[in-house]
Amino acid sequence: MSNNEEKVDLTSLDGFSLKPDWGKGTNYKSATTKSSSGNKKKDKSKRISKTKKYSYKKDDDFSKKEKFTVSVRPKTEVIDLIKQKIRTTGISYSLKEICDTICEKRDRLTFHIEYLNEKDSLIVNKDTGKYYLHYQEAVEDLIYNHGKEYISTCVLSEYEITHPVNYVLKCPLSGKILPPPNIHNFEDIVHSHMFEIGINKKYSNYLESLIKLDDIEALDALKNETFKNFEYKFVKNKDMVFDSIQKLKNSLITEFDNHSFAKKTKLMLKYDELQNFPVAIKRAIEQIMVNKRLWSREVFMACLVLFRKSKFTLYKKNKETYISACKAKSLESIKLNKIAESIIEFVSGSTAAPLMIKEMISHESFKAHSRKEILVELKWLVKEGYLREFSNSSISIP
C-alpha cells in the first residue's frame, strides 16, 4: 500500500460521518438494557410495553384504518457505494458499523409501503408522481391544482345577471363578485370559478369563506360582471366533453382515467419524497422513526441479506459479524517475498489486541525496509485475503 493509496474507510463516503465503535460487543440480536436491580422479568415487561407502543405491525392504530404496513430498508445507492469502497480497499467493516452509519440519516433509508388487501391501494398520478388515498382526492387535485394542464375549455356563451338581488358574494382569494345562491345556475358559476382560479377546497367550505356584501357599490359590481358557460374537454381523451366541472369530476371518479392514474398496492419511497404522499403515510413513517431500536433491526437484516447476495464474505469476530470483499486464504500453498513473510510472521507472533498498522510499521523489525515497501505488501496481503484489515487501522490473521 503506497503512501498515496492509504486506506479509504467509510468516513470517505459522501455525506457520511462514520464513527467506529470498537470494543463494544453490542449487536442487534442481543442488545438489551440490564437492570441495576437484576429484575429481568420487570425489564422484559418494560421492553414489551415499549415495543407495543411504537410497533408498526399491521394491527397498529395509525395504519389500521388505511390497512397498510411500512418497512424500513437501506437505500440501494448507499449500499452500492459501501460495496464499492469495501472492494476498493479490502478493509473489513462490522455489519453493525455499516448499519449504524446508514441509520444516522433518514435520507439513507427507503420506506416500503404494502397494503394488506389487494382491493386497497394508493392512487398515483403518473404525470406528477403524487400519491393519494382515494380516487376523489386524486381527481380533485388534478382538476383544481393542475387543471389547465389536463383540461381545455371553450366558451359556449356569455351572460350577465339581470335578476335583482339583495346581496352579493365576494371571493376572498380573487376578489371576484359572485351572485347569491338563489340564482338558478349558482353552483355552475362557483365551480367554474374554483376551476379557473385553482381553488382545491371542499365546495361547502369554499362557500363559507365567501364574503357577503349588500352595499350599492357591490350590487352594481355584479351587474357589470360577465359570466360564461364553458365546455370542458379532457386533453388526453378528446371524446370526454362536459358542460360543467361537476359532470367532468363525477365522470373521472366513476370511470377512473387509467391514462393519468394508476393503483399501487406496493411501493418504495425515499424520505425526501414524502411531500408527494398523503398525510396518513407521512404520519406512519414519522411515528415509526420514533423508535430506532425497532426499525434499525430491519435495516440490519436487510444489509445482511444484501451483502450475502452480493457474494461478500461474512465472518464472525468477537461476536460481531464482519463484511469483507476478500475470502480468507491459507498461507500454506503460497510463496511470499521477504517483506510479506516478515509481515505475516510479525502479525502471527504479536500479542497486541488490536495490532495497529502504525505500530507494526514503526517496529524495529522493519527498519531495513521503507514505509512504502511495507504498505505495498500489506495492501496486497489484505486484498488477497491473507490478512484482515479493519476500519480502526488494525490487522489480524483470518
The tally of helices reads 15
Low-confidence stretches: 1-9, 15-38, 44-63
The shape is rod-shaped
> What radius of gyration results from the CA coordinates?
33 Å
Give the strand order of the largest sheet, numbering strands 1, 2, ... along the chain. 1-3-13
Oligomer state equals single chain
Number of spatially distinct domains: 3
Separation, N- and C-terminal Cα atoms = 19 Å
β content, as a range?
15-25%
The residue fraction in helices comes out at 25-40%
- Give a count of the beta strands, DSSP E runs of length 2 or more: 18
Biggest sheet details: 3 strands, antiparallel
- What average pLDDT do the residues reach? 82
SS-based structural class? alpha+beta
How would you summarize this macromolecular structure in one to three sentences?
With 398 residues, the chain is of the alpha+beta class.
